[in-house]
């Protein structure tokens, strides 16, 4: 009986080691591809939230955790800054890129990553029929970023029906983070 239990334990251990090794190997193979894909998404997102930089350059400012966008390669004709927002939504952390002009007004936002409830929180990325941009994200454009609030908190951003937590998380995080950045960079002076 004991011998049989040891036999099964040894078999289980061998299967576990083989599975762990296989997972580690696959992880090593896919890690660079995943990192490259995220970098590509970031570059596309930065171009989207910083309009007018297509022929210019977007320069990371690591000290301030922002990206500075210029219309020209020689860093002339400043267009604005972009930053990442990581808001805790209902069921995930939501990665959003935000583009601000020199006055702190939102040019565009792009939700780049989320795992919210399908059919509810995922509507933050929904593109309606006949439109080219996500409807919920488009309503941020032209608004002073630190003043952003959802309608249920007295603001102008219409909450996603059934996903108030997601709507509020993204909006509040953008407002808080942009306020800090504007103050730090003295953008509105």
Sketch the major β-sheet: 5 strands, antiparallel
Rounded Rg: 22 Å
What is the beta-strand fraction? Answer: 15-25%
Distance between the termini: 81 Å
Contiguous uncertain segments of 5+ residues:
none
Shape summary = elongated
Number of strands: 5
User: Helix amount, in percent?
Assistant: 25-40%
Order of helices and strands: HEEEEEHH
Number of helices: 3
State the domain count: 1
Biggest sheet strand order reads 1-2-3-4-5
Which structural category fits the helices and strands?
alpha+beta
**Mean model confidence by pLDDT:** 91
Task: List descriptors.
189 residues; alpha+beta; five-stranded antiparallel β-sheet; 3 helices; 5 strands; elongated
Describe this entry's structure for a reader.
The chain has 189 residues and is an alpha+beta fold. It is built from 3 helices and 5 strands; from the N terminus they run H-E-E-E-E-E-H-H. The chain has helices at residues 2-49, 135-138, 164-185, and strands at 57-61, 66-70, 78-88, 93-100, 106-113. A 5-stranded antiparallel β-sheet has the order 1-2-3-4-5, with helices on both faces. A hairpin with a 4-residue loop joins strand 1 (57-61) and strand 2. The longest helix is centred in the N-terminal third of the chain and has 48 residues, at 2-49.
């Amino acid at each position: 009986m004991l011998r049989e239990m040891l036999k099964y334990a040894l078999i289980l251990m061998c299967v576990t080691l083989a599975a762990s090794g296989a997972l580690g190997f696959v992880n090593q193979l896919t890690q660079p591809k995943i990192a490259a894909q995220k970098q590509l998404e970031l570059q596309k997102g930065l171009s989207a939230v910083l309009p007018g930089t297509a022929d210019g350059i977007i320069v990371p400012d690591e000290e301030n955790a922002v990206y500075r966008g210029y219309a020209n390669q020689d860093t002339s004709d400043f267009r604005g800054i972009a930053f990442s927002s990581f808001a805790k939504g209902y069921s995930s952390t939501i990665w959003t890129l935000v583009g601000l002009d020199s006055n702190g007004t939102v040019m565009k936002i792009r939700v780049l990553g989320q795992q919210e409830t399908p059919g509810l929180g995922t509507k933050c990325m929904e593109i309606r029929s006949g439109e080219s941009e996500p409807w919920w994200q488009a309503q941020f454009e032209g608004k002073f970023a630190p003043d952003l609030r959802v309608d249920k908190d007295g603001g102008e951003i219409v909450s996603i029906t059934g996903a108030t937590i997601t709507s509020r998380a993204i909006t509040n995080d953008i407002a808080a983070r942009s306020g800090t950045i504007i103050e730090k960079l003295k953008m509105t002076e």
